[in-house]
Write a structure and sequence with these properties.
There is one protein chain. The protein is of the alpha+beta class and 564 residues long. The protein has 13 helices and 27 strands. The chain has helices at 19-22, 152-158, 185-191, 204-214, 218-226, 252-255, 258-272, 328-335, 345-360, 388-396, 403-414, 428-441, 491-498; strands at 25-26, 30-32, 36-39, 47-51, 53-54, 62-69, 77-86, 93-97, 108-115, 118-119, 123-126, 135-141, 165-168, 229-231, 242-243, 246-247, 289-293, 297-301, 365-369, 446-449, 455-461, 467-473, 502-506, 510-518, 521-529, 539-550, 553-559. The strands form six sheets. A seven-stranded mixed beta sheet has the order 14-13-12-24-25-26-27, covered by helices on one side. A seven-stranded mixed beta sheet has the order 17-18-19-20-22-21-23. Its EC number is 3.1.3.1. Keywords: Hydrolase, Signal. This is Alkaline phosphatase D.
Length: 564
């Protein structure tokens, strides 16, 4: 998500890591400048990743060894893989999917890489459990704009005592450049966090350079070293507001063929991220997959950008009636068009069967890792939030090129239009088909969402008024939040008041969601950092919600936040 014209609100706003991570291992020949990472854990394996930086960029093949042990001192070694190679054709990244039954289910292991006598930082990974599983802990993250601020939330995650995996819901990188008016540079320039390369990324070399820069951040390295990441992309891994055949932030006349740009972006993504490679003959876009945590839970990750998403609607393109008023009936007819979808029928069938099979296996919790907010959310009426004189003063102080858009937005807010057409609200027919899939599978899942740069706790209802799921939306690690742009207006409270599905919303805080699953309950904690502009910072729990698991399904959401 970027605060742009598709979000009504967008019109209103025109370190210290662990020592092993903070100090890059290097010699005169090679260096481990980008840390280590693991991902996509299963019961006996995981994907292990690093990048070997050669002193000579024209270096050929570099032999690499992967060691996995039960202890941090590597005295109890369980696997040693000595036939890995860092090659220029993959930007000297190394990724190994540890096959076989060398690792035991539900155990934590330590790993490291060695190249030409240089040893990498040490990482930790926990394999997925089998059988009886009393508890699962997942940190849910999204939206890390490098110039947007420090990655303090990742440092906080790296210090968690118990963590099974980090669930990343997308916007791992952003594509924008480093010009003074580019996205996030109002904070990036003072912090010395300008993106590389300094222009908008389009080519394979551009995307590789941007991924490389992000992975030099010590807090991000610390989080990757702490636990396995389970990732999906959202839009900015390619370009803002990506859909099947294009993106809002892609101009073919100057940036070439979108398919070529997408191919470059996905190649760099698979090189630089600890995610399993697409199988031979499979579409690279199809990264939907499931993870089973013993007898307790299944996590189903879906793809909502490249496989089936039709183009986003535009508030600027609302039809007009003969007398020049917004034609809301025509707009709503277009929004409700049955062809509007995010998942597509093949992925929806896969998800329904995966949830059905997991329930049949006796797992009480079905978790849906989804990129964008699923709840029905209409925009708040700004005119009811602030006195007329204050609103007029705010609008009059805006730049001339922004003021007309803001005035239009205020009118649209009054009409109760959806808050963000890039979310599921822009695809209500597809959402209803998904709810029917949940019903047919006999499950009431917990939906996880990112993209919005805000915290959400929502209850999701179908058109018949039946609750189909509960949603926890995580805020950004560092990307600008809607509340950052509106002068302290209580947007979260306004959205709660205007939308029955929204139980809690904070449009300013940064951080992550910690989801703890047990047999009879799930607890979602909205964890925040006090600042992304400096260190030190303070951690706190903004809200804590409990969801009981009963014999007949999910119980009510309970706010169990401890008193301040």
């Amino acid at each position: 998500m970027k605060l742009d014209r598709r979000s009504l609100l967008g019109l209103l706003g025109a370190g210290a890591a662990t020592p092993a991570v903070a100090q890059a291992a290097h010699s005169g020949q090679v260096a481990f400048l980008h840390g280590v990472a693991s991902g996509d854990p299963d019961h006996h394996s995981a994907v292990f990743w690093t990048r070997v930086t050669p002193a000579d960029p024209s270096a050929g093949e570099i032999p690499v060894v992967l060691e996995v042990a039960k202890d941090a001192g590597f005295t109890d070694m369980v696997r040693r893989t000595a036939d890995l190679t860092a090659r220029a054709e993959r930007d000297f990244t190394v990724k190994h999917d540890l096959h076989g039954r060398g690792l035991e289910p539900g155990h934590e292991y330590f790993y490291r890489f060695i190249a030409r006598g240089v040893t990498s930082p040490v990482g930790r990974v926990r394999t997925l459990p089998l059988g009886a599983t009393p508890q699962v802990n997942l940190a849910v993250v999204s939206c890390q704009l490098y110039p947007g601020g420090l990655f303090n939330a990742y440092e906080a995650i790296s210090q968690l005592d118990r963590l099974d995996a980090v669930v990343h819901l997308g916007d791992y990188i952003y594509e924008y450049g480093a010009a003074p008016n580019d996205y996030g540079m109002n904070t990036g320039a003072p912090l010395g966090r300008s993106p590389l390369p300094p222009h908008e990324i389009v080519s394979l070399a551009d995307y590789r350079t941007r991924h490389a820069q992000y992975k030099t951040d010590p807090d991000l390295q610390a989080a990757h070293a702490r636990a396995a990441f389970i990732c999906v992309w959202d839009d900015h891994e390619v370009a803002n507001d990506t859909w099947m055949r294009g993106a809002e932030n892609h101009q073919p006349a100057t940036e070439g063929d979108f398919a070529a740009r997408k191919a470059a972006a996905l190649r760099a993504y698979f090189e630089w991220m600890p995610i399993r490679e697409a199988k031979a003959g499979a579409m690279k876009e199809a990264i939907n997959r499931s993870f089973h945590f013993g007898d307790l839970a299944s996590l189903h990750m879906v793809e909502t950008r490249l496989l089936a998403r039709v183009e986003q609607m535009e508030f600027a393109d609302i039809p007009k009636t003969a007398d020049g008023r917004p034609d809301l009936d025509a707009f709503e007819a277009q929004r409700q068009d049955p062809s509007r979808d995010l998942l597509g029928e093949p992925q929806r069938r896969w998800l329904g069967e995966a949830m059905r099979q997991s329930k049949a296996a006796g797992r009480p919790w079905q978790i849906l890792g989804n990129q964008v907010i699923m709840a029905r959310v209409k925009g708040p009426n700004i005119e009811q939030m602030v006195p007329p004189a204050q609103l007029a003063q705010m609008v009059s102080g805006l730049p001339d090129d922004v003021r007309p858009q803001v005035e239009t937005a205020i009118q649209l807010f009054r009409l109760g239009l959806p808050f963000n057409l890039d979310s599921w609200d822009g695809y209500p027919a597809g959402r209803e088909r998904l709810y029917e899939t949940m019903k047919q599978a006999g499950v009431e899942p917990i939906v996880l969402a990112g993209d919005s740069h805000a915290f959400w706790v929502n209850e999701l209802y179908d058109n018949g008024g039946e609750r189909r799921a509960v949603e926890f939306g995580t805020s950004a690690i560092s990307s600008p939040s809607p509340g950052d742009h509106v002068g302290g207006l209580p947007l979260g409270l306004a959205l709660q008041a205007a939308n029955p599905e929204v139980k809690f919303c904070d449009q300013s805080a940064k951080g992550y969601v910690l989801l703890t699953l047990e047999r009879d309950q799930a607890v979602g904690e909205l964890r925040t950092v006090s600042t992304i502009l400096a260190k030190p910072y303070e951690n706190r729990t903004l809200k804590r919600y409990r969801l009981a698991r009963t014999e007949t399904g999910l119980g009510p959401l309970e706010d169990v936040t401890a008193p301040a």
